[in-house]
Specification:
403 residues, alpha/beta, 6-stranded mixed sheet, 26 strands, binds adenosine monophosphate, binds magnesium ion
Length: 403
Amino acid sequence: MDMIPITEALKLIDENTPTLPIELVSIDEALGRILAEEIFADMDLPPFDRSQMDGFAVRSVDVASAPVRLRVIGESIAGKGFDGEVKEGEAVKIMTGARVPIGADAVQKIELAKTEDEFVEILKSVEPQENIVLQGEEIKKGTSVFCIGEQVTERMIPTLASFGYKQIKVYQRPIVLILSTGSELVEIDKKPMRDEIRNSNSIMLYSFLKKIGIEAEILPNLPDDKDALADLIAEKILSDDKQKLLITTGGVSVGDYDFTKTIFKQMGARIFFERVFLKPGKPTVFAKLDQSLIFGLPGNPVSAAVTFYLFVRRALLRMQGAVNVELRKGFAVVKERLKAARDRDAVLPVFVSTDERGRLVVESLKFAGSSNFIAFARSNALVHIPVKRDLEREEIAQVWFLD
Ligand code: AMP
Ligand code: MG
């Protein structure tokens, strides 16, 4: 199978990632979920002509030649508006947020009024509608406010609450399994023997997923052993017809013990791509087995991270019906030359900051190799370096923020 450009890989993910079914969640569980229903205003806001001030509701014609004295016939407070009508020569005391009574068309603020017994002296005239927010001025009943496919942010919650969405239709979250393969791997709490390293990929991927609201299952590490991998896939993917997403790391290169891809194929997986013009991450595999999707990521922690951000994250969002599946894009000034790869586009973790002139600047992380997860720890973005096209100092680079 041919090596494909990154854009082609993204297209194949979009085309082959089915959207999950819809479920109903309570508003307190909605954060981060993708809307499966359009959200409408179920009432006018404000629901009545609302006072913006503490003061007096008046007829603007009555106070045109202020100062004038008006009779105070009642009060309008939040939660209990004045039900009578304001007639010539009359005023109603009103609080911020309260309903403006019939007959009144303006509010004069309390600082420009003087009360004495049942009268008020309005010291200054007001324009019609002054200090009033008219019914429906903020939004009209029936207006669409959020679309299907939008992700619920914490800032959308008050709108959902205001329009009565105690429960919200969202797309289901994917069931995600994480599997690290490699005979050199030991658990985090073990002291590695000679030739061994601790498995950092599983918990890394778990944390990436947690950050986007997905609680994944970490499967026990596997050695580079064909049968063990085949057995595990049979048990975890083929034994039921649930739609899952399996992320594996390791064993996708061309070494003698790299056979995750071979096993996927043997078990009947359809491979959509298995090599991408990307550094790091060339041997990334995207496949479908039964109902489930599989991403076979390289074992290098940084390669696994980059390919997660570029590919797996996108598929997870697509599964949940998200309209926006891109990482947030930006442009930053290159601080020191970023060297291109000769045969592939490079996508590298970098540090983007704001310089003293307020410009976004991008600096590389002094990678000692793609296994340098310590430098990676300080990254906050990915930079795109097109093939054979070094980015020189002061050039503008495209970055994707990892926030
Ligand atoms: P592989 O893709 O299997 O060739 O692995 C590439 C490199 O990544 C090797 O140096 C591995 O030791 C390392 N590696 C593979 N899997 C993991 C893992 N789960 N955690 C940390 N490093 C890993
Ligand atoms: Mg390996």
